[in-house]
Design brief:
By secondary structure, the chain is α/β, with parallel strands linked by helices. The chain has 26 helices and 26 strands. The strands form 7 sheets. The protein has an 8-stranded parallel sheet with strand order 16-15-14-5-2-1-18-17. A 6-stranded antiparallel sheet has the order 19-20-21-26-23-24, covered by helices on one side. The chain has a 3-stranded antiparallel sheet with strand order 6-13-12, with no helix packed on it.
Amino acid sequence: MTPHAPVAPSSTYRLQLQPEFPFAAAAGAVPYLASLGVTHLHLSPVLEAVPGSTHGYDVTDHGRVREELGGEEGLRALAATARDHGLGLVVDLVPNHMAAALPHNRPLWEVLRNGPASPYARWFDIDWDAGGGKVLLPVLPARIGDLLGDLRVDSGNGLLRHGTQVFPLREGTAGLPLPELLDAQWYRPVWWRLARTELNYRRFFTVSDLIGVRVEDPEVFAATHGKVLELVRDGVVEGLRIDHPDGLADPDGYLEALREATGGACWIVLEKILTGDERLPAGWPVAGTTGYDALRRIDGLFVDPAGAAELTELYRQVAAPAGDRGGHWEATARRAAYKVVTHELAAEVAHLTRTAGRVCAASPALRDHAPWALRAAVRELLIRVPVYRPYRVGGERVLTEEAALAAKGTFAVPEESAAVDVVRDLALGRLGDGPDQRAFRARFAQTASALRAKSVEDKAFYRYVPLLSANEVGGEPGRPAVAPEEFHTYCARIARDWPLAGTVLSTHDTKRSADVRARIAVLSECPGRWAKLLGDVARVPAPDGQLGWSAWQTALGLGGPGGERLAGALLKAAREAGLHTSWTEQDAEYEQAVAEFLAAGPAGALQHTVAELARELAPHVRANVLGAALLHLAMPGVPDLYQGTEAVYEALVDPDNRAPFRQVPPDEKTALTRAVLALRRRRPEVFGASGTYVPLAAEGPAAGHCVAFCRSGGVVVAVTRLSLRLTEAGGWAGTALPLPPGRWRDALAGPDAGAVDGGRPVPLAELFAHRPVALLEGAR
C-alpha cells in the first residue's frame, strides 16, 4: 500500500470487531458505509487479544494484528477496500494495559518465569517488595490450601497446571516437592478475593485480569507501539483513538512521544472524560477528546430543569435508598467514593501509603507520620479530586486548600491531620523529584482516575436514578439540564480551540444508547405522567423502590418489550450499585426477587402500561431523537456514529450494545443522517477546522424551544427542544427565526426543494412544518 498524507476525518463510523465480525465482514460493509457518507471507519482494537474476546481491549501481543479477525493481511485488505471507496481507517489504541491472561501474554509469562531480572520486568508496575519478591496472581477459585490436590507439575514442559490454567516454572524447580516448588516461584497464585487488599501490580481500574503497562519507558513504548506505527507509516491507519489516557503515568509525555513517532501526520483523539467545566490541557498535541463532553451538552438541551427537579423530589420521597433520602447527587457520589476507596481500591491505597511512608522516612522533617494517618490522608484527598485526575500542570486547581481543610476535618486527632499536607504536597510535586516522589505523583493520579470511574460511573450512576438519561459517561446527574446559551458557549469554544475533536452520542461504553436516553428525557417534561405510571404499576411491587424506579424507566427507554435484555441490564445495575447485591458478594435471594419482579412487571403483564405511555410520548421522542442527531452531526467537531445509530437504535449497557454490526432498515433518522453527511462532504469549508459557529436566536413567546446556529455562513441548523412543553404552551405561534441574508435551500427535503429567502424572520411554524428540525444550505 502506498503511503500517503492522511487527512482529518469529516465523520467516522464505529465498528465493533470480534470473531463474529472480522475484517472481511467489515470490508463487506464498506460500500454501504461509503454510501452513507462517512469519511472514515473507526475500528475497535485490532491487535492480538485473548482468544474469543468480543471487544479487543484485552491485548496480549502488541506486535501482531489479531488472527481471529483475519490478521495483518485482512486488515490491510480492509484498508485497501475502504480506500477504493474513499474511506480511511481510524483504530482504537490501548496503551495503558494488556490482558494478564496466561500463557497468552508472553512478556508477563517471561516475568513470572525469570523474575525481576527478566528484560520484560520493566513493562509492568510490580511492587516486588510488597509481594515478598513475588507477583501476586489472584486467579484461583479458592484458597490454594484447598486446591493443592488439584495442582499438577508438568516437568517436561516446565509448567504448573490447575485445570485449564497454566503457569511457568522457574528454572530448576520442577523436581521440588509441591510446597517447596510453590515457594520457589517468582509468583504466588492465590484465591481471586485476595486481589482487593494484596495485589502488587498496577491494573486497569479494579480489573485484575488487565495489567498496567509502563509506556512511559521508551523501550516499552517502542515495543508496544511498533506495529501500530508501521501501519500508520504505511497509510493503513490514518487516525488513532487513545483509550484511557488517564491511566498513564505521564499522559503529557506519552502524547508527545506519540506525536513524534507519527510525525504529526495522524488524527488523534483521546477517550478523556472532562468533568463539569474542566478543559483539556491546551498544549496536548491531539485533535481533542472523543466527545463525551459534547454528549452531555446535547443531551442536556432536551431536559426540562423544572420537571427534572420534580422528578428528583418524587424520587427522594418514594424510591431513594435509605441512606440517600433527602440527600443529593453529590452526597451519593461521595458515599460511593468512600466505598470504592476503602474496599475495591484498598491495594492501590496501600501502595500509595507505603510510598509516602518511604518519602517521610528519608526526610528528618517528615518522619514519624503514622502509616494509618498517611493512609487516611490518601483516601480523603483521593475522594476530593473533583475530576478524573490531577495533571502535572494545574494540579493546585484540583487539590485545593479547601479540599485539604475538608480532609483534615475528618481526623479525630488534629496533630495527625498534618499527614494531609504531606500527601497533598507529594501529589503536587512539592517534596522533591526523587524516584519515590515521582512514583507517588504518578500513582496518585492514576488511582484518582480509577476511583472516579468506579465510584461515579460504575456505582453512583446506578444508585442515584431520578432521570436515567442523565446518568451517562461524562454526565452530571445532579445538573441534568443544559441551557441553550451554555450549549452555544461550548460549541463556540470547540470551534475555536478544538475544531477537529470528536463528538459522540452513542458508543460501546454508553449505558443507554442516545435514542433510549431521548425517550427517558421526555419524562422531565411530564413528571406527572411518570408519577401516574408508578401508581398504575404499583400492584407489582419491586424488591426495593430504587430498583423499581430504574426498571420502569429503563423499560420506557426501550419503548417496548425488553425481555432478557431488560433483565440483563437491571441485574448489572443492581450489582454495580452494590446496595443489595454485587459482583463479588451476590445475594441469590435478592437477585431471584429481581428476576421475578421483571417477569411479572416491566417484562411481563404490565408491558402494555409502559408501551401505552411510550405511544403517547412518541411525537416528542421523535423531536428529541432527530434534534440530538442533527446537532451531533452539524455542530463543531468530527461526529462519530456508533454502528447502527444512523437509524433509531435502542440499546442498553454492554453486552446489549456490542452485538456484531448489521445493516439497519432505513428510517427518517437515516435520511437525516445521509443528508447531513452528504452536506459535510460537499461543503468541507463549512464544517472543517477553519469553519465558524454563530448562534441564532429565535424571537417570540416560544423562542426558548428553538436551538439554532449558522456554520461558516453556509449552513443553518435549527431544532426543537422540549416539544411537549411547547405543545402545552400553544406551539410556535408568534415565534420566528431570523435567517442570515441569502437564499436557503431545505437540505432535508431533497434536491428539488424550494428556497427560503433570508435576511428576515421566518416563522418557526413554517420552518418546522414537516419535521421538528431544519437543515438549510445557503447558495454559493
